Every structure is written in C-alpha cells, then in structure tokens.
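Summary for the lay section of the report: proteins are chains of building blocks that fold into shapes. Here we show the chain for ABC transporter, permease protein and then a coded description of the shape we predicted for it.
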Amino acid sequence: MRDARGNIRRLPGIRLWLSGGWLTFLVLAAIFAPLISPHDPLAQDLFAGRLPPFFEQGADPAYLLGTDSLGRDVLSRMLYGARLALIVALVAGTLTCLIGASLGLIAGYYRGWVDLVISRFIDIWMAFPPVLFAILLIAVLGTGLMSVIIAIVVIDWTRFARVVRAEAMGQGAMDYVASAQVAGRTRFGTALTEILPNVLPTIVALLTLEMGIAVIVEAILSFVNLSISTDQPTWGGMIAEGRTSIYQAWWVLVFPLFALFLTVLSFSQLGEGLKDHFDPVLR
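The coded shape description reads as follows.
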C-alpha cells in the first residue's frame, strides 16, 4: 500500500500481523488449555498462597506466574479465562453483527418508512445507558454464559445498525447502483451483490472492534460477579481479586489486566488493518 507520494505504507501491515499474531496465539492457548495448563485452575493449596512469578525471589518453578491468595496457579487460570473471553467475543460479536448490520443495510438502502421505523427504534434503544442496561438484563436473566452473550447482543447491535445504515445510504447514491437497477436487477439483489460487498470492509472492522468490546463487557460483569459462577476463572474475576491484594501479590492483578488490554487492543487494530487491506477503494 502506498501513500500520496508513492511511498510504501508499512504500518498497516505490521499492525495487522502483530494483532493477528497475538490473537492467534491466544486462540491456540485457549483451545489447548487442558493440555498446556500446568495445574488445575480450581485447585487450591493454601501452603502455596501468593507465590511470586518466576523472575522474583522466592518463586516456585512449578508456578511460572505465581499464585493467588488461595494458592491457585495464575497462569492456568488465565488460560481458562481466555477460553471464556474468546467464546463471548466470537458468539456475541457474530450475533450482534448479523442483527445490527442486517437492519442497517435494510434501513440505509430501502429508506422511506422502513428507515424511519428502524432509525427511531435505534434512537430509543440508545437512550438506555449500556452498562446499566447490561447489569439489569443479567439481574433479570440470571448469571451464566448465555445471559452474558444475550446482554451484549441486546445493548450493542445499534452500533452496527447506525454505521452500516450510513454506509449503505452513501453507496446507494452511487452510479453503479442505478446501473444495476436499470439492468433489471431487483432491489434485494442489488443490496446483496452491489451494496453489501462495498460495505463489508466497514462491517469487518466493526465486528473485530465489537469482539474487543465484548471481552471488556464480560470482564466488567465478571468484576462485579455478574458473569458466570465465581468458581470459574475469568479475567475480570482475577482482576477483582487482585485489586484487594495489590500490595501483597501484584501479579494476580497485573497479568490478567495486561492480557485483557493486549487482547482488546489487538481486536481493534486487527479490524483497522483488515479494513485497509480489503477496502476496494484503497486497493
């Protein structure tokens, strides 16, 4: 890819490879967590409580990233917590994308009373504070993985709908759309074969961004004990536990917090990189 002066723009490629590399590593680590975890993430050993990571004095080689106050292995709990975070990101992000992008495409291309109804519904839905709305939904549905996914889908589909609607309206005014209609193609066929491919780079960027947001929302709900069972390892639960013992065992907070930050950043940068790579205008 080159800029206006013809110089090669290397940053998008590097960004794409770095973010994709971390997410690939995280996916593999989550899939093979039962095989590579050095310990049972739920096993407690009070005699091994708050052991430091391997690079500090007094560390135990059996616990590379140390242990928490109950003697549970931090590395094993992070690996199993990554499984939950990625499941929520994939399922909730995909469902949110399908619902929001479909409504946005319909509203932006068909316009008229269809656009009016969908747009007013989006405005009403966005009036609710998203985090409080998610907590309310969890309180009604009960804790659990499915409840977390439903809450994320319910509060975040409007982001896709608004952006895709604007993109579809812009693409619908292009000459190639008018040419397709003159050629006798149906409006539904035009939307699928002409509008959607040109909006797809934006949808991909939003999807990866939404996956990062889903990871954050799940961590927030875990932090306040509104995600899955408190016995199951989650990054948000580990951060909440580490916050109470930051001066005695900083690693319980820092390691999952760093993994959460790096994962969300990677999802965001991956989306931007894919948009630049697949955007037909930039190509």
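Put simply, here is one thing we learned. The radius of gyration is 23 Å.
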